[in-house]
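>> Question from a student workshop board

For tomorrow's exercise we were told to take the sequence and the ligand below, predict the bound structure, and bring the output to class. My setup keeps failing. Could a helper post the expected result so I can at least see what it should look like? The ligand is flavin-adenine dinucleotide.
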Amino acid sequence: MERYDVVVVGGGPAGFNAVKTVRELHPGRRVLVVNDREDLQIPCALPYVVSGVLSPEKNRYPLQKVKEMGASLLIDRVVSLNPSDSSLFTSGGKAISYERLILATGWVPRRLQVPGGKLQNIHYIDTATPAVEEFVRKVKEAKKIVLIGGGFISVGFADLISRNMPGKKLTVVEASPRIASGVFSSGTLKEMEETLKKQGVEILKNEKVVGFEGETSVEKVVLSSGELEADLVFVFIGFLPNTKLAVDAGIATERGFIKVDRFLRTSADNILAAGNCIYHTSAVDGDFTPGMVASVSARDGRIAGANVSGPQVEDTGIVPAGVTEVGGKFYGFAGYTEELLQRKEFSFKEVTVTSADAYPMALNANPLTVRLYFLKNGRLVGGEVIGESKIVSSTVDFLSSLIAAGKKAEELLSLVTVAFPPVTPPPLLQPVQEGALLFLKEES
Ligand SMILES: Cc1cc2nc3c(=O)[nH]c(=O)nc-3n(C[C@H](O)[C@H](O)[C@H](O)COP(=O)(O)OP(=O)(O)OC[C@H]3O[C@@H](n4cnc5c(N)ncnc54)[C@H](O)[C@@H]3O)c2cc1C
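>> Workshop helper replied:
Here is what the output should look like for this input. Compare the format with yours to find the bug.
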Protein backbone atom coordinates (compact mmCIF):
# COMPACT_ATOMS: atom_id res chain seq x y z
CA MET A 1 0.00 0.00 0.00
CA GLU A 2 1.39 3.44 -0.98
CA ARG A 3 1.54 5.91 1.90
CA TYR A 4 1.26 9.73 1.84
CA ASP A 5 1.15 12.35 4.57
CA VAL A 6 -1.74 14.17 2.88
CA VAL A 7 -4.08 12.85 0.17
CA VAL A 8 -6.48 15.24 -1.54
CA VAL A 9 -9.44 13.74 -3.45
CA GLY A 10 -10.48 16.18 -6.18
CA GLY A 11 -8.29 18.66 -8.01
CA GLY A 12 -10.84 21.47 -8.56
CA PRO A 13 -10.35 24.93 -6.96
CA ALA A 14 -10.76 23.49 -3.43
CA GLY A 15 -8.35 20.59 -3.94
CA PHE A 16 -5.86 22.70 -5.90
CA ASN A 17 -5.62 25.36 -3.21
CA ALA A 18 -5.49 22.75 -0.45
CA VAL A 19 -2.42 21.25 -2.13
CA LYS A 20 -0.82 24.66 -2.64
CA THR A 21 -1.37 25.62 1.00
CA VAL A 22 -0.06 22.31 2.37
CA ARG A 23 3.04 22.58 0.21
CA GLU A 24 3.65 26.21 1.24
CA LEU A 25 2.87 25.97 4.98
CA HIS A 26 3.92 22.37 5.61
CA PRO A 27 6.63 21.84 2.95
CA GLY A 28 7.95 18.54 4.35
CA ARG A 29 4.62 16.76 3.78
CA ARG A 30 4.29 14.21 0.94
CA VAL A 31 1.11 15.11 -0.89
CA LEU A 32 -0.95 13.15 -3.43
CA VAL A 33 -3.87 14.57 -5.45
CA VAL A 34 -6.31 12.08 -6.97
CA ASN A 35 -8.61 13.41 -9.69
CA ASP A 36 -10.74 11.23 -11.91
CA ARG A 37 -10.38 13.31 -15.08
CA GLU A 38 -7.35 14.94 -16.66
CA ASP A 39 -8.18 17.34 -19.48
CA LEU A 40 -10.54 19.86 -17.93
CA GLN A 41 -11.76 23.40 -18.58
CA ILE A 42 -12.11 26.32 -16.14
CA PRO A 43 -15.90 26.23 -15.52
CA CYS A 44 -16.30 29.99 -14.87
CA ALA A 45 -15.29 30.85 -18.45
CA LEU A 46 -17.40 28.18 -20.17
CA PRO A 47 -20.11 30.64 -21.34
CA TYR A 48 -17.32 32.55 -23.17
CA VAL A 49 -15.97 29.31 -24.69
CA VAL A 50 -19.32 27.89 -25.76
CA SER A 51 -20.30 31.20 -27.41
CA GLY A 52 -17.05 31.25 -29.40
CA VAL A 53 -15.47 34.24 -27.58
CA LEU A 54 -12.64 32.17 -26.09
CA SER A 55 -11.04 29.00 -27.45
CA PRO A 56 -11.10 25.82 -25.31
CA GLU A 57 -7.31 25.79 -25.72
CA LYS A 58 -7.02 29.06 -23.77
CA ASN A 59 -9.39 27.85 -21.04
CA ARG A 60 -7.58 24.69 -19.92
CA TYR A 61 -7.73 24.06 -16.17
CA PRO A 62 -4.17 23.94 -14.77
CA LEU A 63 -4.44 20.61 -12.90
CA GLN A 64 -0.89 19.54 -13.86
CA LYS A 65 0.50 22.53 -11.92
CA VAL A 66 0.10 20.57 -8.67
CA LYS A 67 3.18 18.61 -9.80
CA GLU A 68 5.20 21.85 -10.06
CA MET A 69 4.21 22.47 -6.43
CA GLY A 70 5.89 19.21 -5.45
CA ALA A 71 2.74 17.07 -5.11
CA SER A 72 2.08 13.79 -6.92
CA LEU A 73 -0.93 13.58 -9.24
CA LEU A 74 -2.90 10.40 -9.86
CA ILE A 75 -5.60 10.36 -12.52
CA ASP A 76 -7.95 7.77 -11.09
CA ARG A 77 -11.28 7.56 -9.29
CA VAL A 78 -11.42 7.01 -5.54
CA VAL A 79 -14.18 4.44 -5.07
CA SER A 80 -14.07 3.85 -1.33
CA LEU A 81 -12.62 5.13 1.91
CA ASN A 82 -11.86 3.28 5.09
CA PRO A 83 -11.56 5.91 7.83
CA SER A 84 -10.90 3.27 10.52
CA ASP A 85 -7.48 2.40 9.06
CA SER A 86 -6.90 5.65 7.08
CA SER A 87 -6.92 4.05 3.65
CA LEU A 88 -8.64 4.51 0.31
CA PHE A 89 -9.09 2.51 -2.87
CA THR A 90 -9.29 3.55 -6.51
CA SER A 91 -11.06 2.15 -9.55
CA GLY A 92 -7.60 1.59 -11.05
CA GLY A 93 -6.90 -0.92 -8.25
CA LYS A 94 -4.63 1.20 -6.04
CA ALA A 95 -4.72 1.04 -2.24
CA ILE A 96 -3.35 4.19 -0.60
CA SER A 97 -2.97 5.09 3.05
CA TYR A 98 -2.93 8.63 4.43
CA GLU A 99 -2.17 10.50 7.59
CA ARG A 100 -4.63 13.26 6.65
CA LEU A 101 -7.25 13.19 3.90
CA ILE A 102 -8.95 16.21 2.33
CA LEU A 103 -12.20 15.53 0.48
CA ALA A 104 -12.73 18.12 -2.26
CA THR A 105 -15.10 16.15 -4.49
CA GLY A 106 -17.08 19.20 -5.67
CA TRP A 107 -20.41 19.19 -7.47
CA VAL A 108 -22.49 17.17 -9.90
CA PRO A 109 -25.25 18.64 -12.07
CA ARG A 110 -28.82 18.21 -10.84
CA ARG A 111 -30.65 15.97 -13.34
CA LEU A 112 -34.10 16.50 -14.81
CA GLN A 113 -36.13 13.29 -14.45
CA VAL A 114 -38.72 13.59 -17.24
CA PRO A 115 -39.72 11.38 -20.19
CA GLY A 116 -37.45 11.73 -23.24
CA GLY A 117 -34.54 12.95 -21.12
CA LYS A 118 -32.11 10.54 -22.80
CA LEU A 119 -32.63 11.87 -26.36
CA GLN A 120 -29.53 13.12 -28.19
CA ASN A 121 -28.64 16.83 -28.01
CA ILE A 122 -29.87 17.21 -24.43
CA HIS A 123 -26.80 18.19 -22.43
CA TYR A 124 -25.77 18.86 -18.85
CA ILE A 125 -22.74 20.95 -18.08
CA ASP A 126 -19.51 19.00 -18.32
CA THR A 127 -16.07 20.52 -17.81
CA ALA A 128 -14.07 17.88 -19.72
CA THR A 129 -12.38 19.50 -22.73
CA PRO A 130 -13.71 16.99 -25.32
CA ALA A 131 -17.27 17.56 -24.03
CA VAL A 132 -16.83 21.34 -24.18
CA GLU A 133 -15.46 21.12 -27.74
CA GLU A 134 -18.60 19.18 -28.65
CA PHE A 135 -20.77 21.93 -27.06
CA VAL A 136 -18.94 24.58 -29.11
CA ARG A 137 -19.58 22.67 -32.34
CA LYS A 138 -23.22 21.94 -31.52
CA VAL A 139 -24.04 25.52 -30.47
CA LYS A 140 -22.52 26.78 -33.73
CA GLU A 141 -24.71 24.40 -35.78
CA ALA A 142 -27.94 24.69 -33.74
CA LYS A 143 -30.84 26.92 -34.83
CA LYS A 144 -33.23 26.52 -31.88
CA ILE A 145 -31.53 26.35 -28.49
CA VAL A 146 -33.47 25.90 -25.25
CA LEU A 147 -31.74 26.59 -21.92
CA ILE A 148 -33.62 24.94 -19.08
CA GLY A 149 -33.24 26.79 -15.80
CA GLY A 150 -32.83 30.55 -15.65
CA GLY A 151 -30.13 30.75 -12.99
CA PHE A 152 -26.87 32.68 -13.01
CA ILE A 153 -25.10 30.26 -15.35
CA SER A 154 -27.95 29.96 -17.82
CA VAL A 155 -28.28 33.75 -17.98
CA GLY A 156 -24.54 33.96 -18.75
CA PHE A 157 -24.86 31.47 -21.60
CA ALA A 158 -28.00 33.18 -22.98
CA ASP A 159 -26.32 36.59 -22.95
CA LEU A 160 -23.09 35.52 -24.61
CA ILE A 161 -24.67 33.25 -27.23
CA SER A 162 -27.24 35.89 -28.21
CA ARG A 163 -24.61 38.64 -28.47
CA ASN A 164 -21.98 36.63 -30.30
CA MET A 165 -24.00 34.18 -32.40
CA PRO A 166 -26.96 36.16 -33.78
CA GLY A 167 -29.71 34.45 -35.78
CA LYS A 168 -30.46 31.61 -33.38
CA LYS A 169 -33.78 31.16 -31.62
CA LEU A 170 -32.78 31.11 -27.97
CA THR A 171 -35.26 30.39 -25.17
CA VAL A 172 -34.71 30.28 -21.40
CA VAL A 173 -37.28 28.27 -19.43
CA GLU A 174 -37.43 29.04 -15.70
CA ALA A 175 -39.76 27.27 -13.25
CA SER A 176 -39.82 30.12 -10.70
CA PRO A 177 -40.99 33.73 -11.21
CA ARG A 178 -37.37 35.03 -11.22
CA ILE A 179 -34.26 34.55 -13.34
CA ALA A 180 -30.62 34.77 -12.14
CA SER A 181 -31.41 32.62 -9.07
CA GLY A 182 -33.39 35.54 -7.64
CA VAL A 183 -30.23 37.05 -6.19
CA PHE A 184 -30.87 40.53 -7.57
CA SER A 185 -33.56 43.04 -6.65
CA SER A 186 -36.72 43.04 -8.75
CA GLY A 187 -35.67 46.27 -10.55
CA THR A 188 -32.29 44.81 -11.51
CA LEU A 189 -33.85 41.56 -12.67
CA LYS A 190 -36.26 43.52 -14.85
CA GLU A 191 -33.36 45.43 -16.42
CA MET A 192 -31.45 42.19 -17.09
CA GLU A 193 -34.51 40.57 -18.65
CA GLU A 194 -35.22 43.56 -20.89
CA THR A 195 -31.62 43.51 -22.14
CA LEU A 196 -31.82 39.78 -22.90
CA LYS A 197 -35.12 40.28 -24.72
CA LYS A 198 -33.58 43.08 -26.83
CA GLN A 199 -30.84 40.60 -27.74
CA GLY A 200 -33.55 38.22 -29.00
CA VAL A 201 -33.72 35.86 -26.00
CA GLU A 202 -37.19 34.64 -25.11
CA ILE A 203 -37.64 34.15 -21.35
CA LEU A 204 -40.43 31.92 -20.11
CA LYS A 205 -40.97 32.10 -16.33
CA ASN A 206 -43.24 29.99 -14.12
CA GLU A 207 -42.86 27.25 -16.74
CA LYS A 208 -42.08 23.63 -15.94
CA VAL A 209 -40.47 21.21 -18.38
CA VAL A 210 -42.46 17.96 -18.30
CA GLY A 211 -40.72 16.04 -21.09
CA PHE A 212 -38.84 15.96 -24.38
CA GLU A 213 -39.91 14.56 -27.74
CA GLY A 214 -38.01 13.52 -30.85
CA GLU A 215 -37.00 10.51 -32.97
CA THR A 216 -33.41 10.04 -31.86
CA SER A 217 -32.48 13.65 -31.18
CA VAL A 218 -34.51 16.21 -29.25
CA GLU A 219 -37.06 18.05 -31.41
CA LYS A 220 -39.46 19.43 -28.81
CA VAL A 221 -39.37 20.52 -25.19
CA VAL A 222 -42.74 19.79 -23.62
CA LEU A 223 -43.82 22.42 -21.08
CA SER A 224 -46.72 22.34 -18.64
CA SER A 225 -48.40 24.96 -20.86
CA GLY A 226 -47.34 23.90 -24.38
CA GLU A 227 -44.33 22.97 -26.51
CA LEU A 228 -41.12 24.51 -27.80
CA GLU A 229 -39.23 23.41 -30.87
CA ALA A 230 -35.57 22.69 -30.15
CA ASP A 231 -32.54 21.14 -31.84
CA LEU A 232 -30.24 21.64 -28.83
CA VAL A 233 -31.02 21.73 -25.10
CA PHE A 234 -28.84 22.55 -22.12
CA VAL A 235 -30.16 21.73 -18.67
CA PHE A 236 -28.90 24.12 -15.99
CA ILE A 237 -31.12 23.36 -13.03
CA GLY A 238 -28.47 23.58 -10.36
CA PHE A 239 -25.65 21.73 -8.67
CA LEU A 240 -25.70 19.01 -6.05
CA PRO A 241 -22.82 18.37 -3.64
CA ASN A 242 -20.84 15.27 -4.67
CA THR A 243 -20.81 13.39 -1.39
CA LYS A 244 -21.28 9.70 -2.28
CA LEU A 245 -17.74 8.77 -1.26
CA ALA A 246 -18.16 10.45 2.16
CA VAL A 247 -21.66 9.08 2.75
CA ASP A 248 -20.59 5.50 1.88
CA ALA A 249 -17.75 5.86 4.41
CA GLY A 250 -20.20 6.88 7.16
CA ILE A 251 -19.13 10.54 7.29
CA ALA A 252 -21.90 12.80 8.64
CA THR A 253 -23.81 15.09 6.29
CA GLU A 254 -26.34 17.88 6.71
CA ARG A 255 -28.85 18.91 4.01
CA GLY A 256 -26.87 16.63 1.67
CA PHE A 257 -23.52 18.43 2.25
CA ILE A 258 -20.54 17.06 4.22
CA LYS A 259 -20.78 18.40 7.76
CA VAL A 260 -17.59 20.15 8.94
CA ASP A 261 -16.56 22.02 12.07
CA ARG A 262 -15.01 25.49 12.07
CA PHE A 263 -11.64 24.03 11.05
CA LEU A 264 -13.21 22.04 8.18
CA ARG A 265 -12.80 18.72 9.99
CA THR A 266 -15.44 16.11 9.15
CA SER A 267 -16.98 13.64 11.61
CA ALA A 268 -14.23 11.10 10.71
CA ASP A 269 -10.80 11.26 12.33
CA ASN A 270 -8.07 12.81 10.16
CA ILE A 271 -10.47 13.68 7.32
CA LEU A 272 -11.10 17.31 6.36
CA ALA A 273 -13.35 18.52 3.54
CA ALA A 274 -13.52 21.65 1.40
CA GLY A 275 -15.40 23.23 -1.47
CA ASN A 276 -18.79 22.63 -3.06
CA CYS A 277 -19.27 19.34 -1.20
CA ILE A 278 -19.36 20.93 2.31
CA TYR A 279 -22.06 22.62 4.38
CA HIS A 280 -21.49 26.39 4.56
CA THR A 281 -22.83 28.85 7.07
CA SER A 282 -23.49 32.56 6.75
CA ALA A 283 -21.05 35.03 8.31
CA VAL A 284 -24.09 37.24 9.00
CA ASP A 285 -26.25 34.98 11.16
CA GLY A 286 -24.70 31.49 11.15
CA ASP A 287 -27.58 30.00 9.14
CA PHE A 288 -27.02 27.55 6.27
CA THR A 289 -26.04 29.36 3.09
CA PRO A 290 -25.16 27.84 -0.27
CA GLY A 291 -21.50 28.40 -1.18
CA MET A 292 -21.28 26.53 -4.47
CA VAL A 293 -18.91 28.90 -6.27
CA ALA A 294 -15.24 28.67 -7.16
CA SER A 295 -14.24 31.59 -4.95
CA VAL A 296 -15.63 29.86 -1.84
CA SER A 297 -14.04 26.53 -2.86
CA ALA A 298 -10.63 28.14 -3.36
CA ARG A 299 -10.88 29.76 0.08
CA ASP A 300 -12.01 26.50 1.69
CA GLY A 301 -9.01 24.75 0.14
CA ARG A 302 -6.68 27.26 1.82
CA ILE A 303 -8.34 26.68 5.20
CA ALA A 304 -8.25 22.88 4.93
CA GLY A 305 -4.63 22.93 3.70
CA ALA A 306 -3.55 25.17 6.57
CA ASN A 307 -5.29 22.87 9.09
CA VAL A 308 -3.74 19.53 8.13
CA SER A 309 -1.38 19.65 11.11
CA GLY A 310 -4.07 20.82 13.54
CA PRO A 311 -6.41 23.81 13.86
CA GLN A 312 -4.78 27.00 12.56
CA VAL A 313 -7.26 28.87 10.40
CA GLU A 314 -10.89 29.18 11.45
CA ASP A 315 -13.86 29.29 9.09
CA THR A 316 -15.96 32.18 10.35
CA GLY A 317 -18.70 31.72 7.73
CA ILE A 318 -19.13 33.07 4.25
CA VAL A 319 -20.85 35.97 2.58
CA PRO A 320 -22.25 34.66 -0.71
CA ALA A 321 -21.24 36.90 -3.60
CA GLY A 322 -21.13 36.76 -7.37
CA VAL A 323 -20.88 38.73 -10.59
CA THR A 324 -22.48 38.05 -13.96
CA GLU A 325 -22.50 39.84 -17.31
CA VAL A 326 -25.57 40.76 -19.34
CA GLY A 327 -25.47 42.99 -22.41
CA GLY A 328 -21.92 44.16 -21.66
CA LYS A 329 -22.83 45.33 -18.14
CA PHE A 330 -21.63 43.61 -14.97
CA TYR A 331 -24.11 42.80 -12.23
CA GLY A 332 -22.73 41.83 -8.80
CA PHE A 333 -24.22 41.00 -5.44
CA ALA A 334 -22.93 40.28 -1.94
CA GLY A 335 -24.64 39.01 1.18
CA TYR A 336 -28.36 38.89 1.79
CA THR A 337 -30.52 39.59 -1.22
CA GLU A 338 -33.84 41.41 -1.29
CA GLU A 339 -35.65 38.08 -1.72
CA LEU A 340 -33.85 36.40 1.18
CA LEU A 341 -34.40 39.35 3.51
CA GLN A 342 -38.10 39.24 2.69
CA ARG A 343 -38.21 35.46 3.18
CA LYS A 344 -36.42 35.74 6.54
CA GLU A 345 -38.90 38.51 7.46
CA PHE A 346 -36.08 40.87 8.46
CA SER A 347 -37.01 44.49 8.85
CA PHE A 348 -34.60 46.19 6.43
CA LYS A 349 -34.09 49.35 4.40
CA GLU A 350 -32.78 49.64 0.85
CA VAL A 351 -30.83 52.65 -0.42
CA THR A 352 -29.55 53.16 -3.97
CA VAL A 353 -26.74 55.48 -5.04
CA THR A 354 -25.43 56.11 -8.53
CA SER A 355 -21.84 57.30 -8.68
CA ALA A 356 -19.22 56.78 -11.40
CA ASP A 357 -16.51 54.16 -11.96
CA ALA A 358 -13.91 56.94 -12.48
CA TYR A 359 -13.73 60.68 -11.83
CA PRO A 360 -16.24 62.45 -14.09
CA MET A 361 -13.48 64.25 -16.02
CA ALA A 362 -11.65 60.98 -16.74
CA LEU A 363 -12.03 59.43 -20.16
CA ASN A 364 -14.65 56.67 -20.29
CA ALA A 365 -16.20 57.28 -16.86
CA ASN A 366 -19.43 55.28 -16.63
CA PRO A 367 -22.22 55.09 -14.05
CA LEU A 368 -21.67 52.79 -11.09
CA THR A 369 -24.83 51.94 -9.17
CA VAL A 370 -24.67 50.52 -5.66
CA ARG A 371 -27.75 49.27 -3.82
CA LEU A 372 -27.31 48.55 -0.11
CA TYR A 373 -29.49 46.66 2.36
CA PHE A 374 -29.28 47.73 6.00
CA LEU A 375 -31.09 46.16 8.94
CA LYS A 376 -33.07 48.67 11.01
CA ASN A 377 -30.19 48.74 13.56
CA GLY A 378 -27.91 50.02 10.80
CA ARG A 379 -26.02 46.79 10.08
CA LEU A 380 -25.07 46.32 6.43
CA VAL A 381 -26.23 42.83 5.36
CA GLY A 382 -26.33 42.88 1.57
CA GLY A 383 -25.92 44.84 -1.59
CA GLU A 384 -25.68 44.85 -5.36
CA VAL A 385 -23.38 46.66 -7.75
CA ILE A 386 -24.01 47.47 -11.41
CA GLY A 387 -21.52 48.97 -13.81
CA GLU A 388 -19.53 48.56 -16.97
CA SER A 389 -16.02 47.99 -15.64
CA LYS A 390 -13.92 45.68 -13.47
CA ILE A 391 -14.63 47.95 -10.52
CA VAL A 392 -17.92 46.05 -10.07
CA SER A 393 -16.06 42.99 -8.76
CA SER A 394 -13.79 44.97 -6.40
CA THR A 395 -16.82 46.85 -5.06
CA VAL A 396 -18.60 43.51 -4.49
CA ASP A 397 -15.51 42.25 -2.60
CA PHE A 398 -15.47 45.47 -0.56
CA LEU A 399 -19.15 45.02 0.35
CA SER A 400 -18.55 41.39 1.16
CA SER A 401 -15.79 42.24 3.67
CA LEU A 402 -17.88 44.97 5.28
CA ILE A 403 -20.85 42.59 5.62
CA ALA A 404 -18.67 39.83 7.10
CA ALA A 405 -17.21 42.32 9.60
CA GLY A 406 -20.75 43.28 10.72
CA LYS A 407 -20.23 46.98 9.92
CA LYS A 408 -23.00 49.47 10.65
CA ALA A 409 -23.88 52.54 8.57
CA GLU A 410 -22.19 55.02 10.93
CA GLU A 411 -18.97 52.95 10.84
CA LEU A 412 -18.94 53.05 7.05
CA LEU A 413 -18.65 56.85 7.15
CA SER A 414 -15.19 56.69 8.74
CA LEU A 415 -13.64 54.25 6.24
CA VAL A 416 -10.81 55.38 4.01
CA THR A 417 -10.96 54.20 0.40
CA VAL A 418 -8.44 54.82 -2.33
CA ALA A 419 -9.15 57.54 -4.92
CA PHE A 420 -7.43 57.99 -8.29
CA PRO A 421 -9.16 59.60 -11.31
CA PRO A 422 -8.96 56.87 -13.97
CA VAL A 423 -9.78 53.86 -11.79
CA THR A 424 -11.97 54.78 -8.78
CA PRO A 425 -15.20 56.62 -8.05
CA PRO A 426 -14.60 60.26 -7.08
CA PRO A 427 -14.05 60.50 -3.29
CA LEU A 428 -16.88 63.05 -3.05
CA LEU A 429 -19.20 60.31 -4.34
CA GLN A 430 -17.79 57.11 -2.82
CA PRO A 431 -20.95 55.02 -3.43
CA VAL A 432 -20.84 52.77 -0.34
CA GLN A 433 -20.32 55.75 1.97
CA GLU A 434 -22.91 57.80 0.11
CA GLY A 435 -25.34 54.90 0.64
CA ALA A 436 -24.57 54.83 4.36
CA LEU A 437 -25.12 58.58 4.58
CA LEU A 438 -28.45 58.27 2.77
CA PHE A 439 -29.54 55.48 5.12
CA LEU A 440 -28.65 57.54 8.21
CA LYS A 441 -30.40 60.63 6.81
CA GLU A 442 -33.59 58.72 6.02
CA GLU A 443 -33.58 56.95 9.41
CA SER A 444 -32.96 60.11 11.45
C1 LIG B 1 -20.64 27.04 -16.37
C2 LIG B 1 -20.16 27.36 -15.00
C3 LIG B 1 -19.80 28.66 -14.69
C4 LIG B 1 -19.37 28.98 -13.40
N1 LIG B 1 -19.02 30.27 -13.15
C5 LIG B 1 -18.52 30.59 -11.94
C6 LIG B 1 -18.04 31.90 -11.68
O1 LIG B 1 -18.06 32.78 -12.56
N2 LIG B 1 -17.55 32.17 -10.45
C7 LIG B 1 -17.49 31.23 -9.47
O2 LIG B 1 -17.01 31.54 -8.36
N3 LIG B 1 -17.94 29.96 -9.68
C8 LIG B 1 -18.44 29.62 -10.88
N4 LIG B 1 -18.87 28.34 -11.13
C9 LIG B 1 -18.86 27.34 -10.02
C10 LIG B 1 -17.49 26.71 -9.85
O3 LIG B 1 -17.03 26.19 -11.05
C11 LIG B 1 -17.55 25.62 -8.81
O4 LIG B 1 -18.10 26.16 -7.63
C12 LIG B 1 -16.17 25.06 -8.50
O5 LIG B 1 -15.65 24.38 -9.61
C13 LIG B 1 -16.21 24.10 -7.33
O6 LIG B 1 -14.91 23.78 -6.98
P1 LIG B 1 -14.60 22.48 -6.11
O7 LIG B 1 -13.12 22.33 -6.05
O8 LIG B 1 -15.36 22.53 -4.86
O9 LIG B 1 -15.20 21.26 -6.96
P2 LIG B 1 -15.00 20.81 -8.48
O10 LIG B 1 -14.56 21.92 -9.35
O11 LIG B 1 -16.24 20.07 -8.82
O12 LIG B 1 -13.78 19.79 -8.39
C14 LIG B 1 -13.94 18.48 -7.86
C15 LIG B 1 -13.07 17.53 -8.65
O13 LIG B 1 -13.05 16.28 -7.99
C16 LIG B 1 -13.17 15.24 -8.93
N5 LIG B 1 -13.72 14.08 -8.21
C17 LIG B 1 -14.96 13.96 -7.66
N6 LIG B 1 -15.09 12.75 -7.08
C18 LIG B 1 -13.92 12.11 -7.24
C19 LIG B 1 -13.45 10.81 -6.86
N7 LIG B 1 -14.23 9.97 -6.20
N8 LIG B 1 -12.19 10.48 -7.22
C20 LIG B 1 -11.38 11.34 -7.88
N9 LIG B 1 -11.79 12.57 -8.27
C21 LIG B 1 -13.03 12.94 -7.95
C22 LIG B 1 -14.14 15.82 -9.96
O14 LIG B 1 -14.07 15.18 -11.20
C23 LIG B 1 -13.60 17.26 -10.05
O15 LIG B 1 -12.58 17.39 -11.01
C24 LIG B 1 -19.30 27.98 -12.40
C25 LIG B 1 -19.66 26.66 -12.72
C26 LIG B 1 -20.08 26.36 -13.99
C27 LIG B 1 -20.45 24.93 -14.31
